[in-house]
């Protein structure tokens, strides 16, 4: 097929076909800006320039061709060459035609203040609208060609016309905040209602209209509604229309921004050859253990794992896993789907970076990396590791999550920062909006939103998925009810968008076993095909011993306190330095508080009792983790009482564990925080039951399968042998069984039909990874700028950019702390202020959102807790989804979090 660049070069040009084209304006300059207005022709040429850059640099031509090939795969229609070429022409012309509707006289007079035109009577909504007019011109132009120019059968004409109706959605909605199902917009559309008024605009463009009457539109809407998309066409049509919308809206935005700001965007943030070589080299040389692994992988070294438990042997086994991964990825580097199953403490993050370097080295077309995590704590940890291991700068790594704030590329001298030009801020705004960074660390919510969103702003990033590596960590943390949707998208995007997916976990569900309506069955490459040899090695398997003595005994909090003290005392007596690090994990915060009350006057050192829950602020969480990791504290007697937030990738090393039973893989995650580096005798994790896990896991198939199908003995065996497939095979079977029932809501009967009919809204809504609604509570405390890290060095809570922003807004540190009351006032005033220029406001909003996250925690949204929290809040200061906890001194403690005893019932919503 012709390249998109050639199709755009040959596309209809306004300056050639539009009468008096120089009279039509597309944009006016910002107020007080002494630059001429931008003509319609100038704007479209700039859009074409950004389109070509987006397509060329992201390698999209081959992706578009592949999608079109898939749409006409079986060749049953005939005339494949004409159909292929014309579908691509239709794709290109959405961009060429998208602003043709700006010839609307009302747009020129009302929006452009163009005195060369006079307003006309119209019922267009809005009267100055241009998107629907442009869509009408696009559609009539192409329907005329389809029906008259080619020697096509009636079936072929209907098929191409159907594709044109799908693509016209992009033109129609390119200024809407969301895209909707194409045919919804056509029923009773302006094309029919305003036909007589719209048809006259064709003359301006010298477009002939002979066959496409009002009756044609009325009849054809019914015809295309009866078209059934075949299985092999479903995903390609979905992806092609989304890609079209992404390229049109992003190219249009960037072009408009260049004119309005008089700034050219030079860098789209991709991995070039220089960065590729740096990453590949760094992965081999930065750490001595990786250098050794590369050296041995290239030799005839035979992997033999030591049996005896020791820290040195653990490092040998980690090295052996790296060697095996390197050898396997090199053999299979052209494959697209990979599993990495490795034990907790086996160095999965390091292994994933070796994989990235090998895939980049073997696949020169790959130019982006997405690291996907379920928790922001994992993003923070991996960010530090990836900068060091792969020798990256902050300019090369983006953090995309709710707490990240506004990211600036350090392309100006530090002494210029205070007087930095507004132009630099505008470029940074674009880089944030379009994530123009070669490597992006983001949450699973943000990543899968890019995959399936119907929201315009997130859809800007859709075209950046092509030719990328995606590392999905902690796969087991995703709700099983969405595993089928995950597999459907992962398989299709990998195959057609040339994406490399690496799914990794210590407890890895093999989602490829699911039976889904896929054209091709997914084939995953195991990078550690004999992973069980590592799991069962004494250095991992005997690192922690699960004890079920208290699993079936009804315990009270006081009973558990006695047990914890007894077992901790026993550990102290046999430890070399007479110390102990004990962790006790509950499901609900209420039990955390009750347990602390029961043990606080009895534990060995009351100053070393720490509480960690979902209501603890980030600065306090980091203080606790740093204390636990500080070597000088290793001789102390420490008790950490926590909810399941500690499982979210928290890198700590405890001696004893006590855990409320919940999900089997959750039990394993807690065990991963105990004896992490195998430097101690086998350490025990005791399982007990106080909180009812069914309260929060009642919809999770892992919980119901464990309850109904796995005996206590099998539960023990899974944890001891690490044979999590026994659990997951049952869960996958339940998902398949559900998908087999026609009368049930499931993937096959409910979600897949959304994709078939391009129901973008329900595709998005039907795949919500977090279904529980949360709301956020802002605590106006004073928080420290700096805390001590694990080596007693300063660690920043507020970045330099954040402090600079606060200073600009007259908030300065007092006694080394930032006042939360002042921070909230900035946010409140900034959001309310409608006079601030858009980009300045958006930069400020993004920056202050990152700052606000340091003062914020979230709880499940229920009417009861909202009512109770409101009694401690100031309703006049609440905004968006935040409650302002003005009277926090009555119900909140910086060290312990929310004091749930102040509420009638907090059992089920505070974690």
UniProtKB/TrEMBL annotation:
InterPro entries: Cas3-like_dom, CRISPR-assoc_Cas3_HD, CRISPR-assoc_Cas3_HD_sf, DEAD/DEAH_box_helicase_dom, Helicase_ATP-bd, Helicase_C-like, Helicase_Cas3_CRISPR-ass_core, P-loop_NTPase. Residues 329-526 form the Helicase ATP-binding domain. Gene3D superfamilies: 1.10.3210.30, P-loop containing nucleotide triphosphate hydrolases (3.40.50.300). Keywords: Antiviral defense, ATP-binding, Endonuclease, Helicase, Hydrolase, Metal-binding, Nuclease, Nucleotide-binding. Signal peptide: none annotated. The keyword Metal-binding applies. The keyword Metal-binding applies. GO terms for biological process: defense response to virus. Coiled coil: none annotated. Residues 33-254 form the HD Cas3-type domain. One of its GO terms (molecular function) is nucleic acid binding. PROSITE patterns: HD_CAS3, HELICASE_ATP_BIND_1. In the central section; belongs to the CRISPR-associated helicase Cas3 family. In the N-terminal section; belongs to the CRISPR-associated nuclease Cas3-HD family. This is CRISPR-associated endonuclease/helicase Cas3. It comes from Pseudarcicella hirudinis. The lineage of its organism: Bacteria, Pseudomonadati, Bacteroidota, Cytophagia, Cytophagales.
